[in-house]
Amino acid sequence: MQELILIRHAQASFGADNYDLLSDLGHTQSEWLGELLAGYGLKPDRLATGTLRRHKETLDGIRKAFGDLPETEEYAGFNEYDFSGLLNAHHGGEAPEHLHKDQKAHFQALRQTLAAWQRDEIDNPPEMFSEFASRVEDARRKTCRPGAKRVLAVTSGGPIAEILGAALRMPLDSRVEFNMQVKNTSITRFIFNERVFYLHSFNETPHLDRLDRVAQRTYS
């Protein structure tokens, strides 16, 4: 059996001009995660990310705790959906500014937007939900090809929830709720071979479970 370890990127820069950059805390979260994985002996023999900068910066932090690791494979299928574009489309072309800047308002609106997107109720979205699901599955299949015992992929909350939902055959509305729960630098693990693919654990953050780090758990 092979193992797939999905990592959600570390804290990015919500509300900034460029969200796709890790915050100072995000860089620290990545390094803590690398130390944990190395300490547990969970050295991957295949690495993958999406093409986003926050994915690559998270993997850079993880790499610091290891010696030599394989070259990184990049798959755009692991990229997040365009949440800003979806919010704008759901509001007729331009969402109120506070939905892009205020975290509480953003996530409340995003939950409703994702549910509508999955039901094909949004006109002219950046991509159809079916296209998103298809590209995520394509990236998962390519990453989980034979030849590696332990695969580690850094991605985003949306793809993690979609892979989880497909594996467990969840209804679409349940996938939205799991999407909202995925923490930065969380670990979600699957066991698979050429015939089966099933969940082993979801959304774990043991590197942030210490009392002096609990406040460093984040969701954006």
From TrEMBL:
Question: Known PANTHER family for this protein?
Answer: PHOSPHOGLYCERATE MUTASE-RELATED (PTHR20935), SERINE_THREONINE-PROTEIN PHOSPHATASE PGAM5, MITOCHONDRIAL (PTHR20935:SF0)
Q: What is the lineage of its organism?
A: Bacteria, Pseudomonadati, Pseudomonadota, Alphaproteobacteria, Hyphomicrobiales
Q: Give the record's keywords alphabetically.
A: Hydrolase
Q: Name one GO molecular function term.
A: hydrolase activity
Keyword Hydrolase listed? The answer is: yes
Q: What is this protein called?
A: Histidine phosphatase family protein
